Amino acid sequence: MTISIRAWAMACLALFPAVAQASEEKSAVPILFESRQLDLIDKGKEVTYRFEKTGSDERLVGKNFADDLRLGVADVDAKGARQVIFKVFTGDNARDPQNWPDLTINPLFIWYLDRAVGTFNSLAGGSQMYLKHKIREALGAAKVEEIKVDYDGKQVDALKLHITPFAEDPSSQKMQGFHKSTFTIVVSNQVPGYFVDLKSDFVSTQAAGPELREHVKVVGMGDAK
Predict the structure, then answer these.
(1) What pTM was computed for the model?
(2) Domain spans of the chain?
(3) Rounded-to-integer distance, Cα 126 and Cα 138, Å
(4) For the structural domain made of 5-223, what CATH number should be given?
C-alpha cells in the first residue's frame, strides 16, 4: 500500500483553506494535518499501536486478524522535524519498514486513510480517487467533539471526529449497501503519537450483507527496537 503523506495533507488543506478562520468551532483539517503530532515522540522512542480486523463472514471479508504497528523516531533535526520509521505488522505479515525524513505529522493516520479507501473500494467498488475526495470533503466538514479518554492509567483530554462520507452520495445505490460506513478518529496532545483511536465500520444495509470493522488503538511508548 503506497502512502503519500504530504499529498493527503496538502489535498485536505487546499480543499478547505479557510475553514479554521471562518468558524469559531474547532476545525478538523488543522487538527489532523497541521498540528505537530510527532513532537510527542522523542528521539529513540517508539509508539506501538494494536490493529484488529473483525468480520461477519470470512468468505466475503476475509479472516479476522490482529497485529501491531510501530512508529519510531530515529532522529530529530534542529527545527524539531522527525526522521520516522514506520513498521506495519510483524512476523510473516510484516511489510518492509518505511522511512521518512522531516515529518511533523504522524504517518499512521495516512496509512489508516489509505487502508479505509482500499477496503471500501474492495467492498463497494468505485474510483479510489473519488473515494479519497469524498473522505477529504467529509473531514473538512466534520464536527469536533471534546471528550476524555483513558491512557496510561489516567484520563486525558481528547478530540473526537466522526464522519459518514458516502451516506448522501449520488452514487450510494451502487455501493452494495456500504454507503453508511462510518469512520471515527480520536486524537489527544497528551498521548504519544497524537492518535488514540482510529475506527472504520463497514456495515452493509443489504439483507444478509457482511460487516467488517477495523480498529487501530494506541498501546504505549517505549524504546525503539
Answers:
(1) 0.89
(2) 5-223
(3) 17
(4) 2.40.360
